[in-house]
Amino acid sequence: MTSPSTPHPPVVVLLGGPSAEHDVSIVSGTAIASALRADGLNVREIVIDLDGRWWWLPADHERGAHPPAAYDDPAALGAEGPITVGAAIDRLAAAEPPPIAFIALHGPFGEDGTVQALLDAVGVAYTGSGVLGSAIGMDKSMQKRIWRGLGLPVVDWREIRVARWRADPAAVLGELEAFAAGTPRAEGRLMVKPARLGSSVGMTPAHGPLERAEALDLAFRYDTLAVVEIYLAGARDLEISVIGSDPPLGIYGPGEIVAGREFYDYAAKYTLGLSATSTRASVSDALRTTLQKLARDAYRSVGAEGFARVDFLVRDDEPYLSEINTIPGFTPISLFPTMPAEGGLDFTAVCRRALDLGLQRHAERAATRLTPADLPR
To answer: How many CA atoms lie less than 13 Å away from 219 in the CB half-sphere?
Structure first.
């Protein structure tokens, strides 16, 4: 871990990415880069476009008033590229002094363990969870299986694969009808979402049988696996920030989101002024303690490292784990980087802490270079 007297390695912020959360990542990544650069660090930004090509933005790049769509043409922003993923990883590995990658990529490729594995393969330090924690953190179905197996509270769900949906949609819809009917409190309503995506992309509340097919079709535009949950109408959206290694863990919140739409969809999340947020939700001390304990248990159980946001649905003071986000939003309206203010960490300090934890884990990793003498011959 670095200290004020220890020079900090260069930082490369990875943003964009070949996922439906590309634009959100642009906002998160540029905010992180700006904060760290203003704090005196040597920062470069790398835009990964929708085709998976890497572009090095100019060293003095600032997003300013550029909308995310401006990054569709990195060359117009003065970026160097495009560079293939293999060449880009080799470039990072050969850099002197060795950098640390701040992964600000949301969704598949950036949040699911793929880019983490690439960086591990060449020994480049990076922020956040490793391959396993990232992969589980991206897969809502796997999270739920783990949490239910540990006795943690989750909303009942079903998993539907696209091959089964295409082969026999009538059977799938019949199963979902029985599922909805078996939970009277749901009143026939289900929530349909891609299993491995975030930012509520492809997520739809299906209020009855006629809406379920359309909701599944939308989810399958983004993934081959859909998660179908009982829809908890009127539930509160509460979030916890977790930062650190274990021990100790910094656990902050819960914060609360009051969506400006039926549920906290993409527009409600990222349209300024549409939803209201609070970094300290009005809950009883008992519920606050319960949520923080559940967040800690959820974080540990999936192998998360560095930082994450844990989301809850709470109805009638009964909490349910919704999901974990191992690379949560760092946008101006995101709760994850603002809730730690109760522990004295502002946005820049949260980013700095993420870097220090990544460097610490990199320094403590198991040896990856063996000699013939190391082999059990």
So the answer is: 27
